[in-house]
Design goal:
The chain folds into four domains: about 180 residues, P-loop containing nucleotide triphosphate hydrolases (Rossmann fold), CATH 3.40.50.300; about 80 residues; about 210 residues, 3-Layer(aba) Sandwich (Rossmann fold); about 140 residues, PCRA, domain 4 (Orthogonal Bundle), CATH 1.10.486. The protein has 30 helices and 17 strands. The strands form four sheets. It has a seven-stranded parallel beta sheet, covered by helices on one side. A six-stranded parallel beta sheet has the order 3-2-6-7-1-8. A two-stranded parallel sheet has the order 4-5. Helix 4 links the parallel strand 2 and strand 3. Helix 5 crosses helix 10, helix 10 packs across helix 11 and helix 18 packs across helix 19. The longest helix has 22 residues. Bound molecules: adenosine-5'-triphosphate and magnesium ion.
Length: about 700
């Protein structure tokens, strides 16, 4: 068939391999290619191409790693389609099913869950809630009181989750990932069984359940085929970071591989701690023998000197399938390796560079500071705030994960699902005079239907609770009953009216917290209903209120701060990697096994390959131990072991030294001589 001009237009600008991928027929297609080679761009074009060829948008399922990525891809696909529409007259559509695995699972379960006996109004527990429920069950079984120390709730949850997501038995999981918990097999099995029962009786699903239930739904004789028939095409980005369960879901969605497109890069697999396995991508051709395998080797993102440095970093990996990349984006300086005196020096350097770049016309939003762990940016955040440089932070503690926001939402969750014991155990102890034991008893009194909180009305509260108790009962009765039809901002407002006065008694700095609650009330109007808001906030918590406030204004410019994990798939003109010292990259928390160190290496590679034109890698060589309260207690650090001499050759070495002056006291300038990396690492440990 001769291609119409519009399709030709859609394909223009793609290289031959990308074109082949975009216009590939229905057979299973696998693209394994390195960073910045246009994998995501290819998927976007393929979606647009499929629609231009007549595929109904609602019959396309696009699975991505973050909701941010999904929104971005659908926006890009719309852009491509709009161009096409100018000639075909077929308008762009926003009805493509796009989102994370968890978000799509929720949508499908709300639609089809009834068939497997799932209550329509099920609530979704985030990780924190799940741990809390695990703790309730653990205490109930008396496991918290045993002589030997039983694993904490977070560890129990991690073990449970690992079993579910890797579809493995408990014993091998303990053996491999939690060896210090061996010996507790029987208790853990008992705990997990009880946890599963408890969720069932409460009508809640945790994150892992969303995948498990989706998987089960697809295995159901009646519903399974219906869901399969709902989609003609399934496209998956970042496949290297899916886990076994996710791979099986894909397999059940496309048992013969028809209409399946999968892209990924084994050199960027960074989520094995969440049971992701790179084998999924490498074994796809085994699962579908008629798989077409395409590779892409031209990197369009980074300038050649940056790519060369990144290639040498990943060149140190023991096992890798994708090849070294090339770029024809010549010119630009080499990346910089910045030896900073200490953390203050690093902060000063990074801020100076950011402002210099902005002077040169690079907006803040085209610049990003990346780090291994969320708390690595604290000092920088303080300095940016002081200098009034706006920023957004991704990864780490999110607005929605802050205690007061969780509290407020817990009221709404309890109203939505009165049996949600985790929400109840959060709400009730906010009332003075009610502790965990009373809260448990009160939750046991909650009824199933009609007026669920009726029994609370006749309960005699202790003296301290006497003032607040009737107001709480009235609030909850109203929110679960007649008030549930009030507008969402109105509902939040009522909760706020009850909860705000309690803030001062529960937390320090109540004023900013109270302002956050006001923000939430404003934001509430953006959601269709209570359940939608609770689900969306649980599945993809925004990192700041600004995130929730809708698309930023055009002149609203802000710098990006992000953990490396959250920077996956993204790109910026200028990238600053901070704290690139041993102990941070690789993280001390992840140097237990060669595999973990390999994953840290790939993580470092992901960070470097986010940069288009400028890359600065900063290594503070001295860390002060603020916790001890003495300003000069410090330890030395070494640049990351991933920047070996062979790699460092591809960087320009820079020593800003800005925090030192000639007359600085000599102690501060003493070079770190006579130390071995071993002692340094030991000293640096435990500083934060
Ligand atoms: P990652 O592995 O980091 O997810 P990726 O392989 O998904 O990267 P993209 O984000 O799709 O890569 O593309 C990287 C950059 O290259 C983007 O800015 C994209 O617009 C650009 N790009 C991709 N293909 C081409 C092309 N054929 N011509 C010009 N630019 C391209
Ligand atoms: Mg990508």
């Amino acid at each position: 068939m001769a291609e119409t001009p519009s399709v030709e237009q859609l394909l223009s600008g793609l290289n031959p391999q990308q074109r082949a991928a975009v216009t590939h027929g229905r057979g299973p297609l696998l693209i394994v290619a390195g960073a910045g080679t246009g994998k995501t761009a290819t998927l976007v074009h393929r979606v647009a191409w499929l629609i231009a060829q007549g595929t109904e948008p609602g019959r396309i399922l696009l699975l991505t790693f973050t909701r941010r990525a999904a929104a971005e891809m659908l926006r890009r696909a719309d852009g491509v389609l709009r161009e096409v529409a100018k000639t075909t007259g077929r308008g762009p559509s926003s009805r493509v099913w796009g989102g994370t695995f968890h978000a799509i699972a929720t949508r499908l379960l709300r639609r089809h869950g009834r068939a497997i006996g799932l209550a329509e109004g099920f609530s979704v527990h985030d990780r924190g809630d799940s741990e809390d429920l695990m703790n309730v069950v653990r205490t109930g079984l008396g496991l918290a009181k045993t002589d030997r120390r039983f694993p904490k709730k977070g560890t129990c949850m991690a073990i449970y989750s690992r079993c579910v997501n890797s579809r493995s038995k408990l014993e091998p999981v303990l053996e491999k990932a939690f060896p210090w918990c061996r010996g507790w097999e029987d208790e853990l099995k008992r705990l997990f069984d009880a946890y599963v029962d408890r969720k069932e009786s409460l009508g809640v699903l945790d994150y892992d359940d969303l995948l498990l239930y989706w998987h089960a739904l697809l295995g159901d004789e009646t519903v399974g085929p219906r869901i399969r028939e709902q989609f003609d095409c399934v496209l998956v980005d970042e496949y290297q970071d899916t886990n076994t369960l996710q791979a099986e879901i894909i397999h059940r969605l496309r048992p013969d591989g028809q209409g399946l497109t999968v892209v990924g890069d084994d050199a960027q697999s960074i989520y094995s701690f969440r049971a992701a396995t790179v084998r999924n991508i490498l074994d796809l051709p085994k699962r579908y023998p008629d798989t077409t395998l395409l590779t892409l080797e031209q990197n369009y993102r980074s300038r050649e000197p940056i790519l060369e440095a990144a290639n040498h970093v990943i060149g140190q990996a023991k096992e890798r399938f994708t090849k070294n990349l090339w770029s024809d984006r010549q010119g630009g300086g080499r990346p910089r390796l910045v030896a900073c005196e200490d953390e203050d020096d690093q902060t000063a350097y990074v801020v100076r560079r950011i402002l210099e770049h902005r002077e040169e016309g690079i907006d803040l939003r085209r610049q990003a500071v990346l780090f291994r762990a969320s708390h690595h940016s604290i000092l920088l955040e303080a300095e940016l705030t002081r200098r009034e440089i706006p920023f957004h932070k991704y990864g780490g503690l999110k607005f929605i994960e802050t205690a007061h926001i969780k509290d407020l939402l817990a009221f709404l969750r309890l109203a939505e699902n009165p049996r949600d014991v985790v929400a109840g155990l959060r709400v009730l102890p906010l009332v003075p005079g009610i502790g965990p034991a009373k809260a448990h008893a009160l939750m046991d009194m909650v009824g199933g239907s009609g007026e669920p909180f009726a029994a609370w009305k006749t309960w005699r509260p202790p003296e301290a609770a006497r003032a607040a108790w009737p107001a709480l009962v009235e609030l909850m009765t109203s929110l679960a009953g007649p008030g549930k039809n009030a507008g969402l901002p109105e509902q939040v407002h009522r909760v706020r009216a009850f909860y705000s006065p309690l803030l001062e008694q529960v937390y320090d700095n109540p004023v900013p917290r109270s302002r956050d609650l006001e923000q939430l009330e404003q934001i509430a109007s953006r959601y269709r209903g209570r359940r939608t808001m609770l689900t969306e906030l649980t599945l993809d918590p925004p990192s700041s209120t600004q995130d929730l406030a809708g698309p930023p204004l055009l002149d609203d410019d802000y710098l990006i701060l992000s953990t490396i994990h959250s920077a996956k798939g993204l790109e910026w003109d200028c990238v600053y990697v901070i704290h690139a010292v041993d102990g941070n990259i690789p993280s001390d928390m992840a140097t237990g096994s060669p595999e973990e160190i390999e994953e840290e290496l790939r993580l470092f590679y992901v960070a470097l390959t986010r940069a288009k034109n400028w890359l600065d890698v900063c290594c503070p060589l001295r860390y002060y131990n603020y916790q001890r309260g003495t300003s000069d207690a410090h330890g030395y650090a070494l640049p990351s072991r991933f920047i070996s001499d062979n790699v460092a050759k591809f960087f320009d070495r820079v020593t800003p030294g800005s925090s030192l002056t000639e007359d600085d006291e000599p102690e501060k300038r003493q070079p770190p001589t006579g130390l071995t990396s071993e002692t340094i690492r030991r000293r640096t440990k435990g500083l934060w």
